[in-house]
Amino acid sequence: MFGTEVVLALNLLLFLHVVAQFGVNGEHKWPVPYRRFDRRPDVDSYCEALYPFCPTGDPDGRIPYMRDSDTVSVYRLQTPVWEFKYGSLLGKFHIMHDAIGFSSAETGANYTMEWYELFQLGNCTFPHLRPDMCAPFWCNQGAACFFEGIDDLHWSQNGTLEKIGEITGRQFNDMARWVREDNETGIYYETWTVRSDPSPNTTVWFESYDCSQFVHRTYRKLTELGAKLSSRSQTNYTKIYLYSGEPTFLGNDSAIFGQPALKNLALDIRKFYHTFRPHQSFADAIFSLLEAFEKVVLERSFYLYYNFEYWHLPMKPPYVQITYEEVPLP
């Protein structure tokens, strides 16, 4: 009897999951909501960062307390991705990283706050294929980093360092509490925004969850707390789009990998991601680029990992696009 009850409970949970995904009328809700968690899980030791995450920030993510009477300046920060290594190169393609700066009038201390990948962008965008595991292995956590100081040259030389408003110390402390909660519940990085076409009335299938989205959420929260934010220049941000027809839900790791009936699907997903594996030689990378073109453009197929579940995207022209588009301050 106990075994029967367990089976019924599992079937009920699966049914509720499907209802949540597709709605009561069987139609999917777009865009798919980003899944939040009760807490941030421990990092798997297999995941390694080429550059350590938040090296000068507090190890526990603590944010300094400001006196309620303090006046805190808010700065919009933007610079080319990996500017410290490649200078302005990626900025020429409008591939930018975003952050927020703060400056206390009472103490004179400056701070930088940003949200980015724990193990670099490539690991968040594509998985590792481990020989000891059937399912692809992902190192896709992202998190907030708060540290003292604003590197003026880093942000202003090839990007933006602009004061956009002032808040009170109390508003800053309220924002800090929200950041801790947001950081504990939004744990994974998502590179892609997926939509049906480039037109203004497009259907968005999936939203990205990256550095700029964190900045937008923080600006909205500051506005809710009473801040007035304004910029003298156009506030543009990087978006990386995939274009596809309506996605097909495939399932999570346990539903796909190790299931004899879905062996071909599992093999096809692994083959797809093998094209984008890390640490390739130059010759292998050229061959993989041709394989990616064949899969994405000629076969019009892409496997997306979102909310720890797999989706199939029937790709459409223009397939992939990087834009630098305006998102006004709230």
TrEMBL record:
InterPro entries: CLN5. It catalyses: 2 1-tetradecanoyl-sn-glycero-3-phospho-(1'-sn-glycerol) = 1-tetradecanoyl-sn-glycero-3-phospho-(3'-tetradecanoyl-1'-sn-glycerol) + sn-glycero-3-phospho-(1'-sn-glycerol); 2 1-acyl-sn-glycero-3-phospho-(1'-sn-glycerol) = 1-acyl-sn-glycero-3-phospho-(3'-acyl-sn-1'-glycerol) + sn-glycero-3-phospho-(1'-sn-glycerol); 2 1-(9Z-octadecenoyl)-sn-glycero-3-phospho-(1'-sn-glycerol) = 1-(9Z-octadecenoyl)-sn-glycero-3-phospho-(3'-(9Z-octadecenoyl)-1'-sn-glycerol) + sn-glycero-3-phospho-(1'-sn-glycerol); 2 1-hexadecanoyl-sn-glycero-3-phospho-(1'-sn-glycerol) = 1-hexadecanoyl-sn-glycero-3-phospho-(3'-hexadecanoyl-1'-sn-glycerol) + sn-glycero-3-phospho-(1'-sn-glycerol). The keyword Glycoprotein applies. GO terms for cellular component: lysosomal membrane. It holds the Pfam family CLN5. Residues 1-21 form the signal peptide. One of its GO terms (biological process) is aerobic respiration. Keywords: Glycoprotein, Signal. The keyword Cytoplasm does not apply. GO terms for molecular function: hydrolase activity, acting on glycosyl bonds; palmitoyl-(protein) hydrolase activity. Belongs to the CLN5 family. Exhibits palmitoyl protein thioesterase (S-depalmitoylation) activity in vitro and most likely plays a role in protein S-depalmitoylation. Catalyzes the synthesis of bis(monoacylglycero)phosphate (BMP) via transacylation of 2 molecules of lysophosphatidylglycerol (LPG). BMP also known as lysobisphosphatidic acid plays a key role in the formation of intraluminal vesicles and in maintaining intracellular cholesterol homeostasis. Can use only LPG as the exclusive lysophospholipid acyl donor for base exchange and displays BMP synthase activity towards various LPGs (LPG 14:0, LPG 16:0, LPG 18:0, LPG 18:1) with a higher preference for longer chain lengths. This is Bis(monoacylglycero)phosphate synthase CLN5. It comes from Amphilophus citrinellus (Midas cichlid).
